[in-house]
């Protein structure tokens, strides 16, 4: 009969900077779970005058990177400088996000 795809998102209740999405695939005919996998996880952190958002999407094996900076216009709180950059999947280190940022910067130099 087919599959039904469900998702479940969770956010760290302490820091609210880390979240992840789990994908649940249900086989409709026998009414059972076919598989459960980590779809994506993201981390948001600040460094100097910018805020960074890093999202690893495991289903596509890609890392999405966004950088936001404060702007002087009062109508907008933040503005993306680079927009969204899509990179090959880079392992996410929640304990040392600045090392991840260094790796992203090196890759951006070559793109």
Explained architecture:
The protein has 1 helix and 6 strands, in the order ββββββα. It is mostly beta strands and 111 residues long. The chain has a 6-stranded antiparallel beta sheet with strand order 1-2-3-4-5-6, with helices on one face. A hairpin with a 7-residue loop joins strand 5 and strand 6. 8% of the residues are buried. The mean pLDDT is 83.
List segments where confidence is low: pLDDT < 50 over at least 5 consecutive residues: none
- The coarse overall form would be elongated
Strand fraction equals: over 45%
- How many extended strands? 6
Helix content: 10-25%
CA radius of gyration:
17 Å
SS-based class: mainly beta
The mean pLDDT is: 83
Distance between the termini: 44 Å
Q: Please list the strands of the largest sheet in the order they lie side by side.
A: 1-2-3-4-5-6
Main beta sheet: strand number and arrangement?
6 strands, antiparallel
H and E string:
EEEEEEH
Number of helices: 1
Short descriptors:
1 helix; six-stranded antiparallel β-sheet; 111 residues; mainly beta; single chain; 6 strands; 12% helix
